[in-house]
Each structure stands twice: as C-alpha cells, then as structure tokens.
C-alpha cells in the first residue's frame, strides 16, 4: 500500500489578478480553492494515475473538513488525525505578473497527536511505500521525518522525502528511496548558486553520498536531473507547453516518478519520463493533471 503524510495540509486559494499592488486594494478576475499540501497533492495525482493510496497527516477545523471532502472526492482514502483545536491553513497563491505565495503556519500539533500518527505508521508492513512531504507546523522539531524513518527502519518500506533544509538533511542517514529537492532548495542546502548542470550534479552527489538512494532535482521549466541508485545520471527536458499554474507541479512529479517506477518494475528512465510529464502536465493546467494529460505529454 502507498501512504502519504502531510503534516500541514492546506486549502490553496489561487487568485488571478491583472496586476498586484502592495499597499492597495487588489481585485481578482478569477479565483478558486483547492485542497493542497504536498503529500495530499501526491496522493491525488497518484490516484489520478490509478494508484490507490491513503493520505495521512493532521487536519483541523472547517478548513480541514473541506480538505477531507476534496481528498475523498478525488478517490483517495484518508485517515487524517483530527486535531482538537485550530484550523488547517489557507495558503494564498497570487498569480499576476509573477507568482507570489503566502503559506500560513498551520495549527499546533501536540505530542498526543503525533503519537496517534505513530500508531498508524506502526501498522505499515514490508513492501509498503511512504511519502513524507512538505513543511511541518511550528513547534515540531526538524528531526520529525527522521524520527519516523528511525521508527520504521527494521521494515522494508520505501520512503520518499520531499522537504527542505534540516528536515531533509536529517533523514539522509536513514537511506530514503528518493528525495526531490528543486534546484533552489539544493542551492540553499549548500548555500551557493549553481552556474552549470555539473554544479547541480555535484551537489546532488553529495546528498547521495550522505545516504539518499535516488536524488531527483527538479528545475521547473528546465526539466530535471536524476542521480539513480545505480550511479547513472539522467537528464530530461520539459515538453513544450504554456505555464498556467505551477503549484503542485513538484508533487505531481513525485507521483509520476513513483507511478512510472512501479509500472515499469524499476526502470529509472521510465520513472523520470513519467515524473517530468506529470510535473509539466500539472504546470500546464489550472490544477493537478489526470492520466490522459500526462500520457499525452509522454
Ligand atoms: N514552467 C514550466 N514548464 C514546463 N514544466 C514545468 C514548469 N514548471 C514546472 N514544470 C514541471 O514540473 C516539475 C517540477 O517543477 P519545480 O522544479 O518547479 O518543482 P517544485 O519547486 O517542487 O514545485 P512546487 O513546489 O510548485 O510543487 C519540473 O521538473 C517540470 O517537469
Ligand atoms: O508550506 P509547505 O508545506 O512547504 O508547502 C505547501 C504548499 O505550497 O505546497 C503545495 C505545492 O507543492 C501546495 O499545495 C501548498 O500550499
């Protein structure tokens, strides 16, 4: 079974404005609200691709109810821990001349809530796949994902981590199956700016040396680079298309990569191709791509 964990789900409020003026009254010409949070996006795209999965994580308040409704509507199973107080966050995505995102902090998660998630994770068995994706709310340590991996280390569970900074670096010793930093996240890990593709590969190699089995670096409109567990470096350009909404394209890439890997029984060329196609298919439309959109780009 495939499980995703989203510690900090959201409703994404996508607003389109002709121009965005700070300190003024701005009005949208189009807006909509969709369930979000990285793990949830991965769950939805996996489901769109025909892969059953269960979304785990923490949900609170009326926003949480709407997130659950949408997750179920998309056909995903869910077993979110319902928090007793607070509300799941609303993240604002402003699309005008550029893209501005305002991601809220999210509700407080108590030790008791985390213990409930641990109990759920204790039921995972050999062969399961777990995706830990996105930020964690204030108050939780940046060792959170590492603690989960430590707890599961005696079982043969493939774990994918999409996180930034210490939350990501702390898991490497536990040999995640896949990590997917974007190139800006990789730059900030190494506190540098990449000039060439070779610079990116060098940095990704260092993460592999620290334990990550596969490193997939996404580069938005410049495609992606995969350093696979067999020592191969593969690059992929994006297909032609018009950017409509890039929110969730990285998560779509993770879902596409995993689906491609599973469907091809471990062929990394196919996994990378499906990952890029899924990322771009979502970037070229208002929301998360369907299987037909992804196959068309493949
Ligand atoms: N402008 C674009 N044109 C074509 N494809 C794109 C574009 N932006 C993103 N993609 C596709 O999506 C993939 C992931 O994009 P990106 O590197 O922006 O991930 P990310 O930063 O994790 O995204 P997000 O956090 O917004 O979900 C890219 O590798 C590419 O396949
Ligand atoms: O604040 P985080 O957890 O880093 O990112 C949250 C988020 O920006 O990620 C998704 C896109 O990848 C959105 O659905 C969501 O709003």
Describe this structure in words.
This protein is an alpha/beta fold and 298 residues long. It has 2 domains: 1-165, Ribokinase (UDP-N-acetylmuramoyl-L-alanine:D-glutamate ligase, 3-Layer(aba) Sandwich); 177-298, UDP-N-acetylmuramoyl-L-alanine:D-glutamate ligase, CATH 3.40.1190.20. It has helices spanning 38-48, 61-73, 111-121, 144-152, 165-169, 183-190, 197-209, 249-263, 268-283, 291-297, and strands spanning 2-6, 10-16, 30-36, 53-59, 77-78, 81-82, 89-95, 99-102, 129-133, 158-162, 178-179, 214-218, 224-227, 233-236. Strands 1, 4, 5, 6, 9, 10, 11, 12, 13 and 14 form a 10-stranded mixed beta sheet that branches. Strand 13 and strand 14 (233-236) form a beta hairpin. Helix 8 runs antiparallel to helix 9 (268-283). The radius of gyration is 18 Å and the shape is globular. The mean pLDDT is 96. The chain binds adenosine-5'-triphosphate and 1-O-phosphono-beta-D-fructofuranose (F1X). Adenosine-5'-triphosphate (ATP) binds at residues 182, 218-221, 223-224, 238, 243, 246-251, 253, 276, 279-280, 283. Adenosine-5'-triphosphate binds next to helix 8 and helix 9. This is Tagatose-6-phosphate kinase.
Average pLDDT taken over every residue: 96
Order of H and E elements = EEEHEHEEEEHEHEHEHHEEEHHH
Count of helical segments?
Answer: 10
Approximate strand percentage: 15-25%
Q: Please state the second-level CATH architecture of the largest domain.
A: 3-Layer(aba) Sandwich
| CATH fold description of the largest domain | UDP-N-acetylmuramoyl-L-alanine:D-glutamate ligase
Helix content: 25-40%
| Termini gap | 26 Å
How many individual domains? 2
State the fourth-level CATH superfamily of the largest domain: Ribokinase
What is the CA-based Rg, rounded? 18 Å
Q: Ligands bound here? A: adenosine-5'-triphosphate, 1-O-phosphono-beta-D-fructofuranose
